[in-house]
Write a structure and sequence with these properties.
This is ArsA family ATPase. GO terms for molecular function: ATP binding; ATP hydrolysis activity. It comes from Nocardioides zeae. There is one protein chain. The protein is 48% helix and 13% strand. The longest helix is centred in the C-terminal third of the chain and has 33 residues. The chain has an eight-stranded mixed β-sheet with strand order 3-4-2-5-1-6-7-8, with helices on both faces. It folds into two domains: 266 residues, Rossmann fold; 51 residues, no CATH class. The protein contains 14 helices and eight strands. By secondary structure, it is an alpha/beta fold.
Amino acid sequence: MPGILPGPAGYAARVSAVDRPGPDWPGVQLHVVTGKGGTGKSTVAAALALALASRGKDVLLCEVEGRQGIARMFDVDPLPYEERRIAKGLPAEPSGAAGTVHALHIDAESALLDYLAMYYRLGRAGRALDKFGVVEFATTIAPGVRDVLLTGKVFEAAKPGRRGKNARQYDAVVLDAPPTGRITQFLNVSDELAGLAKVGPVKSQADLMMTLFRSSRTAVHFVTVLEEMPVQETADGIADLRRTGLPVGGVVVNLTRPDELDADDLAAVTAGTAQAAPLAEDLAAAGIDGGPDELADLAEHLLAQGRDHAERKALEDAQRALVATYGVPTYELPRMAGGVDLGGLYELAGHLRRQGMA
């Protein structure tokens, strides 16, 4: 509920305090998180915000896709178009201070009304335009303008020396951004507006935003899973950002599976030298109930599962090797049984912190 802060009380035992000496992105203020649909980019963005808060930072977590994903993940009411405190970080040290996580749900229509009020003093008149559908019409026919409005609100939150009523200064902003295939267009707002506005406040705002988006204070992080299509999209997205001069951050390999076999057993299964009969004898020696035929069937079933695991691991290792060639820091997050609840977010935040992402 609004005003009630989920905290670390129930999760401290699940997160190790052994961290890397320092984070990989000490000078970054705006963390943009993107990824192919289904890779868990929103979860990673939320975990990153908590990880940064665990370092004592006050963090703003933003979303721009209209799905109210932040509210669901943090188990709070749907977010309005205003900054709202939703969680506390887990301190990196037992005696350390934790920061807080605020959240902001940004929609283009509300951002345009803000823009009209700021630059053209259209307060009530702007709201009247919204009633007549003019705002929705304007943001639909000009997608470039829509992106400027969405990113503009993020830029305003990230810039130092914010002004205005209740304006809060954040140490870091985390943006749950659009998917990989659209991220370059979304951030490269100056070029996207080139054919629409060559002068005026919209163009000036876009140019100003690009000074942040192309600077070392911004990092665009990619989320992938160890499958061919997401890994290839990540490679394409990194190449696109580099071509347009936008700063590439790290790659988070999400939903990794644990090793279910030790190295020797995995080698035997892979080589086809593992046999069912010795495995059935081991099952009997371990006290598994069943007659010889039942244990033999169980052993065959286990061997089949082992071969499937070995094949899947070989494919994943091949994709992991590709990610390692991208020349950026990489981090891994485990697949969590039963999905990710609030406690799971804190646990994932601990993984990111220990690996140095935050």
